[in-house]
Specification:
The structure is a single chain. The chain contains 25 helices and five strands. The protein is mainly α and 569 residues long. It folds into three domains: 145 residues, no CATH class; 70 residues, no CATH class; 208 residues, Alpha Horseshoe (Serine Threonine Protein Phosphatase 5, Tetratricopeptide repeat). α4 runs antiparallel to α5, α12 runs antiparallel to α13 and α21 runs antiparallel to α22. The two termini are 43 Å apart.
Length: 569
């Protein structure tokens, strides 16, 4: 049995007693938080907050905050009857709501959320809606956030105890966090030891490995080579699990090649190019910068474009030979001589297709139009600094619909945010009013992607409760429309229910209405037709009463022929 399996079994034995204690606590929510759970060797160091009073003379809780705490305790009790995925989600969100008022209880509930994830079944191989690292992976999401919070509190021993119970994707993500933590304190040996724990894992954290190599000085050249070799060995071991983009193996080589002997770097470049050349998936990767579009029609073209600038430094003759045999890549590199680095910071719109066919001229045109609309939006928003009224007028000339977003609404939102920050209340309200005029025309995806769901919050920031109330009512209609889409029998949203677009829209309605009238928030929750979603919104309501914003929520859709996700504040 390998070391990871031993650690998992040991941690699982420790978690059993904690789970029994936890179930007892959740069955009697009125009881005070107990001592540290049995899963941990050391108790949390955060002092217990004693409701309205503490030994440190904390401010007395307001009536709204006391009401929020009662709601949270009720949500904890209700969570015990939910399915493991929704239970983990509700408890995790509740832990963030507790953080400022009762930090020790927040820690306990966060660990309870982690425990609940152990009851979530791993997805089947053909279940693309809940795969590790996807928007539908609530198990991984909760585990990652709980462990990341422990790292932020410098409770690394607890992270080491819990990490074997996390999924592989989470272990890799948390390892990256641990490496970053150790690099800040220049504990290079600990950082390298953390990477060694995932040396055989898929989705190896190449970005963290590159950070470590670049942080090591010349006196650690042997360690740099060791980490480089480990990363390359992992790639060769899992070369069927190829990813592209920032943090992939190609990006790793781009960043670190000059930190190891030339022969070692050259071998890595050769390995990546050989693998890409033998691939038959015909990856299409395109990058649009407004008026220009760069198309890379295979994995090999992608790697050539990415790595030839490195190869020029290592073996110019070989680089020239490859360019002679690949006229298309040569032409592309003449426009972008530094490869991928030439495209950074240019407002680039990226698109990837694994369909095995090149994009049609219509698709290429659509990508170019998307880039042009993004540029037009940026120009109009900049104009708001000098003439906000004209910026609003120009925004109205943009289309309401464009694929998955609304250029008009997205532009008006940025104008409203900019003018709000500049205390130009009339201009901000003008932009928001124009959004309300077309909001009922938007699809649920357009509402999410164009951030129209933030309009109630924007009105509240302006001190306009009447405007916020009107915006909440409009957003409720969007939530109902979105729920009908999420539950459409012909093509339902198979993603995790707590992150459905409809769930997120109801959350924002509840949070905004809590600041207008708590009775309004209660009425909204009572009108939600889905009990699971309603349970999650009780935590959102309590969070608002406690003045806690919480972390962003992933909003995901998984349909027959498409999937998408975004992050909602």
């Amino acid at each position: 049995m390998n070391k990871i399996a031993h650690r998992r079994q040991a941690a699982l034995r420790r978690i059993t007693l904690f789970s029994l204690l936890l179930l007892t606590r959740l069955s009697f929510p009125q009881a005070p938080a107990s001592a540290a759970p049995a899963i941990l060797k050391n108790p949390p160091s955060t002092p217990v907050a004693k409701s309205a009073k503490t030994d440190n003379a904390a401010p007395k809780l307001t009536l709204e905050q006391e009401r929020g705490l009662r709601l949270l305790k009720a949500a904890e009790a209700e969570a015990a009857g939910l399915q493991p995925d929704m239970r983990a989600f509700v408890l995790w969100r509740a832990s963030m709501a507790y953080a400022k008022i009762e930090p020790r209880r927040a820690d306990s509930i966060a660990l309870a959320a982690f425990t609940a994830t152990q009851g979530i079944e791993d997805p089947a191989p053909d279940d693309n809606c809940h795969q590790s690292g996807s928007a539908g992976d609530i198990k991984g999401t909760v585990q990652q956030h709980v462990l990341s919070a422990l790292i932020d509190k410098d409770r690394l021993e607890e992270v080491e105890q819990l990490l074997p119970l996390a999924g592989e994707w989470v272990r890799n993500q948390i390892t990256s966090r641990l490496v970053g933590h150790y690099l800040k304190t220049k504990e290079f040996a600990q950082a390298e030891a953390s990477l060694n724990q995932v040396e055989d894992s898929k989705n190896y954290p190449y970005g963290a490995a590159a950070d470590l190599i670049l942080a090591m000085g010349p006196e650690l050249s042997g360690d740099r080579m060791s980490v480089f070799h480990e990363a390359l060995n992992n790639y060769q071991q899992h070369d069927d699990n190829v990813s592209f983009g920032s943090g992939d193996i190609g990006d790793f080589v781009e960043r670190t090649w000059s930190s190891v002997p030339a022969a070692m770097a050259l071998a890595a470049v050769d390995s990546l190019l050989d693998k890409a050349k033998s691939d038959e998936s015909k990856l299409h990767y395109s990058m649009s910068t407004g008026s220009e579009t760069l198309a890379l029609n295979s994995q090999y073209q992608y790697r050539l474009f990415q790595l030839l600038p490195v190869l020029r430094e290592l073996d110019k003759d070989k680089a020239d030979e490859l360019l002679r045999d690949n006229a298309e890549t040569k032409a592309q590199l003449s426009r972008y001589p530094k490869g991928m680095q030439s495209l950074q910071g240019r407002g680039t719109v990226y698109s990837m297709s694994m369909m095995g066919t090149e994009p049609t001229p219509e698709q290429m045109t659509e990508e170019r139009i998307m880039g042009q609309l993004q540029e037009r939006k940026s120009t109009i928003v900049k104009q708001a600094a000098k003439d906000p009224a004209q910026a609003v007028t120009d925004a109205l000339n943009l289309p309401v619909h464009a694929k998955f977003w609304s250029p008009r609404v997205a532009t008006l939102m940025e104008i409203a945010e900019y003018t709000t920050n500049r205390k130009n209340t009339s201009a901000a309200k003008s932009a928001l009013e124009e959004i309300l005029k077309v909001e009922d025309q938007l699809t649920p995806t357009e509402v999410s992607m164009s951030r129209a769901s933030s309009v109630p919050k924007m009105y509240l920031n302006l001190g306009d409760q009447d405007g916020a109330r009107k915006a909440v009512k409009a957003l409720l209609k969007s939530a109902e429309k979105s729920y009908a889409s999420d539950t459409n029998a012909d093509d339902p949203n198979k993603g995790f229910k707590g992150t459905w677009p409809s769930s997120d829209l109801w959350r924002k309605c509840v949070q905004a209405s809590a600041q207008i009238s708590p009775a309004m928030a209660e009425e909204i929750i009572a009108g939600i037709p889905d009990p699971d979603i309603a349970a999650a919104q009780k935590v959102a309501f309590a969070s608002s009463l406690l003045g806690v914003g919480g972390e962003g929520v992933i909003v995901g859709e998984c349909r027959k022929n498409s999937s998408s996700f975004s992050v909602s504040e």
